[in-house]
Amino acid sequence: MAPRWSIELGVTLMCIGLSGLARVVLDQFAPGALPFGLVYPVALLATLLAGWRAGLATLIVAGVGAWYFVLPPRFSFALTDHLMAVNVGAFFVSGAVEVALAAIMMAELQARLAERDLLLREVDHRVKNNFQMVVSLLELQAFKAEDPALKAGLADAARRVIGVARAHRRLYSAGASSESIDLGAYLGALCEDLDDAGLTAGAIAILCEAEPFHISRDRAVAIGAIVNELVTNAQKHAFVPGDSGEIRIVLRVETGGAALTVSDNGCGLPDDYQSRSGLGHRLMSGLVRQAEASLTTNPGPSASFTLKLTV
What we know:
elongated, 8 helices, single chain, Heat Shock Protein 90, five-stranded mixed beta sheet
């Protein structure tokens, strides 16, 4: 939010200070060595951080300082011979070329990043449309189906596709690099969606307590689908219609990984839950494998599941 000029000025002053500090340290071991050698790295750093103006300003100020304070005769801009004049001129010219090349490389990199972001948004948009098309087809088939079991199965399939679509949609809104995502922020955003689309008209609160934990995007999608499945199952089956309650999602970072717990204060799991092997259990097992995790059912009067994640 700061003005551009203030960022450039701050980076320039920081890099000039780094050059001066490095000179003080070097002079303790080799006084007067490399009079201009410490200026190149800080000018390059300033260019990469704040652009060519900051790099050029750092080059000029730090270079003039090195010329005055380090190059013999010290505390003077005198050029004792023709060779020294050539060396000083060559330093400033080569430094300007370095700054220009770094600025061109950064501009090219930024252009490529902008192009990549545009392609990602386009792919994301197409994937959303494809999810919506699949959901519409399933809902249409469910509407036409006369068999109650088939109608319920198609409705469940549509619900699960909506869950995966929801997990995918939040993948690019939690703030992350192209390779990893903050699972804590991702789960917080996902829980907002689940609360807004709740099956219980707001009677069941969805609470999320998630610590920052970075994970790959592929694993995050699987984890989001697992959370969606567990939360929607709890919304549908854990509470008597008209009752109030809460579903809690807690992510805690541990040594070597993290633990994600999804629990509710509803009526608990049926006695034969562990022995079931229906589509929902098979889907959950596949998602757990995709997330490279392990899922356990915690003992207690209410339903509670813990997903163990490794780094």
